[in-house]
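Comment on both lines for my students:
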Amino acid sequence: MAAPDVLLIGHVARDLLSTDPTGGYRLGGTVSFAAVTAAALGRRPTILTCAAPDIDFAELPAEVELYVLPSEATTTFTNVYTEEGRIQYCSTRARPITAADIDASLHHPRAALLGPIADEISPDVASVFDEETLVVATPQGWMRHFDENGRVHGKPWESADEVLPHVDAVVLSLEDINSDLQRLTAMVERVPLLVLTEYRDGSTLYRREGDGTTRVTRIPPRPAREVDPTGAGDIFATAFMIRFQETRDPVEAARFANVTASFGVEAVGVAGIPSREQVLAYMQEHPART
């Protein structure tokens, strides 16, 4: 069996449509958006997830390879967008994913994205990959807790010390750190690359240099006509991972990811995720400012 190209680990989600009284949903979760993005960019995505038997994967591209671990429930979210930001509720959660769930045939992908959405990936998963695999983590799911009503709140990343030594890059948002940049300090000291996404303002790249200092680079945005922001960070993280694995240039990868995510928010769900050709054409027409 050939090793996976791009391996995506985390829960798929049922994203309930708050405007649909019949309880309709669309497929969500970091790995779902990541799989569509990887396919659109010409790569071969493999998802390892947990879900109940009744989950519908029809929204995923046909080329996505699926490994679905059995679970009594599927992680289910409701997203409510307000002028003050997003409010999330989680009504059910699938079972956790541990290193023992990762078959040996999945240990050698070209790139692996750890994309928890409900604190479901155990820290030992990060250590199963060989040195040639580019491992990227989006820690938002490790930085969430749920109150008695299921409302999602932020918390410190408690497993960071166990995960960070085994990853090459971390991608997270201002929302994940409640806009407190001081929370980045400990992460930047432990991982070679960290990218902070900043909504309409683009992103910031933090690179740890050999002498222990940190180099900070602002990556300007592509202006977008926002229709649906859900999944923008997941699109960004996947595009960054793919382009960095291809070029080993983090600035190029972050700019590529900015452009990819900006197209992604211009339509509902995954409909706006662009092709590689669209992204590269835009970058060629709008060269980076030097």
Notes: The chain has a mean pLDDT of 93. The domain at 6-285 is CATH 3.40.1190.20 (UDP-N-acetylmuramoyl-L-alanine:D-glutamate ligase). The chain is about 20% helix and 25% strand. The radius of gyration is 18 Å.
